[in-house]
Design brief:
alpha/beta, Universal_stress_UspA
Length: 309
């Protein structure tokens, strides 16, 4: 039986002509340079779907005016990429589907999807739009959500990467992705672990009575957890792996700890548990919190995105 052909990995970016998608395009182009990968630029029209009792489902064809506008958006995007990075190979695609479905259909497990924080969906008042959330929750590969600052990304570099971890399988996967990204870019990796201590009783009185302070206990457990997690992830990778790693352990909420550690960084990596049926809950509270508050690109590893690697 003939083996299935595997195409080279590529960077897939969704655009709609907005400033937010322009920022995503610039970040995606820089990442395509780092990976020496093809940059696929996708513009989704979201044409209405009509279901017939006899002919099945079909989408309206775009009018010549809509088709011309799409061609113009893609042409401007390719020209902008050539101006920034003349050596990047690009291909452009107009998709009839809604943006999330179009991006998911164009992506394979070894790809990278890049989207803006908003501007491609109906609910443009949301900081992280419906497209970003849906794609990040269901993609077969990592998804980068790029905030826009006056139409540009805050950074297109990957010199300092921050990843938040706990003791879960989800954190193990996210750390593995962060290590790989840091190795590819020769970047510094900052591993963040935080905890919040409940105080049902007076901590001063408990300490005076001879109880061990909870901060000391959590500090020691945090040190052991992070060391074990790092050892497992690094052992799974090649022997010549050389990544500069620092650890931040702090008593704080996970979202606040990650955001504080990301000051001056270029990207944040988070994992997505992908549980629940409500759209807003698909990414988990930490992923959602980081996405809504981060001013730098956030790399989301959806649930099951790396299971076949």
């Amino acid at each position: 039986m003939a083996s299935k052909e595997v195409r080279p990995a590529r960077v897939v970016v969704g655009i709609d002509g907005s400033d937010n998608s322009r920022a995503a395009l610039e970040w995606a182009a820089a990442e395509a340079v780092r990976r020496d990968a093809v940059l696929r630029i996708v513009h989704a029209l979201g044409m209405p779907l009509i279901v017939s009792a006899h002919g099945g489902a079909a989408r309206f064809e775009p009018t010549p005016e809509i088709h011309g506008q799409a061609t113009g958006v893609l042409g401007e995007a390719e020209a902008h990429v050539r101006k920034l990075h003349p050596t990047v190979e690009t291909d452009a695609l107009t998709a009839m589907e809604e943006a999330p479905l179009a991006l998911l259909r164009q992506s394979h497990p070894h790809d990278l999807i890049v989207v803006g924080t908003r501007g491609m969906g109906t609910f443009k008042s949301l900081f992280v739009g419906s497209v970003s959330v849906r794609v990040a929750a269901h993609a077969p590969c990592p998804v980068v959500v790029v905030p826009s600052h006056k139409g540009k990304p805050v950074s297109t570099s990957m010199d300092r990467i921050v990843v938040g971890v706990d003791g879960s399988r989800n954190a193990h996967r996210a750390l593995g992705l962060a290590v790989d990204l840091a190795a590819e870019s020769d970047a510094e990796l900052v591993v963040v672990h935080s905890w919040e201590v409940p105080y049902p009783y007076d901590p001063v009185a408990m300490t005076a009575a001879g109880y061990q302070p909870q901060e000391d206990l959590f500090e020691r457990q945090s040190e052991e957890l992070v060391a074990e997690l790092l050892a497992e992830v690094i052992d799974e990778r090649r022997e010549d792996l050389n990544v500069e790693i620092s650890v931040v352990r702090t008593q704080d909420s996970p979202v606040s700890a990650i955001l504080k550690a990301s000051e001056g960084a270029d990207a944040i990596v988070v994992g997505s548990r992908g549980r629940g049926t409500v759209r807003g809950l698909l990414l988990g509270s930490v992923s959602q919190g980081v996405l809504h508050r981060s001013t730098i690109p956030v790399v989301v590893l959806p649930r099951h995105a790396d299971e076949d690697e």
